[in-house]
Design a protein that fits this description.
Blueprint (H helix, E strand, L loop, with lengths): L2 H5 L7 H20 L3 H17 L3 H17 L3 H18 L2 H17 L3 H17 L3 H17 L3 H10 L1
Helix pairs in contact: 2-3, 3-4, 4-5, 4-6, 5-6, 6-7, 7-8, 8-9
Pfam families: TPR_10 (PF13374), TPR_12 (PF13424)
Organism: Dendrothele bispora (strain CBS 962.96)
Protein name: TPR-like protein
Length: 168
């Protein structure tokens, strides 16, 4: 079954067809996103989510939710971004995707920073840093420490900023 046929059809598809269709829509999302055609990228992501859910591929479903949240974030649609990333984080927790959980925490921190919710952002980045540290992703943990250092520097908390940057 081709993606083109499915664009105009709402019929039931098998689990294996749903898996393939989800991947096709996800690839289309990346093409539209790269071309800054965000409305089309959002539509493709929503379609991918539908098929990933139908195929019971929870990891891909969570990943598409994160992508949708990232697109909303890039459009300054922070409420929608936060909702989608939070939902992705919950799904990542259900399936035990530690990297996904940490990435969601990191993006939620970005959202909170843009909304001026500095204390929440610091908590999220700290949690993400601990997650990355726990499963040995030192580079991503260092990125979090750097982010914390930059936040503290902007707050003129130079001792804390220095500590975070030195740890990074």
């Amino acid at each position: 079954m081709s993606v083109k046929d499915c664009l105009n059809e709402e019929g039931n598809v098998s689990q294996s067809e749903a898996r393939i269709l989800g991947r096709c829509y996800d690839t289309l999302r990346s093409i539209y996103y790269a071309q800054t055609q965000y409305d089309k990228a959002i539509n493709m992501t929503l379609q991918a989510q539908k098929y990933f859910k139908q195929s019971e591929n929870q990891w891909a479903q969570a990943n598409s939710m994160r992508w949708l949240g990232n697109i909303y974030f890039g459009q300054s649609r922070y409420k929608e971004a936060s909702d989608m990333i939070s939902e992705a984080q919950q799904l990542c927790q259900q399936i035990g995707d530690k990297l996904g959980i940490a990435e969601c925490l990191q993006r939620l921190a970005d959202i909170y920073l843009m909304q001026g919710k500095i204390d929440k952002a610091i908590n999220m980045i700290s949690d993400a840093q601990k997650q990355f540290q726990t499963f040995g992703n030192q580079m991503r943990a260092a990125e979090c420490l750097l982010s914390l250092g930059e936040i503290y520097r902007k707050q003129k908390k130079y001792d804390e900023a220095t500590e975070m940057i030195m740890r990074a």
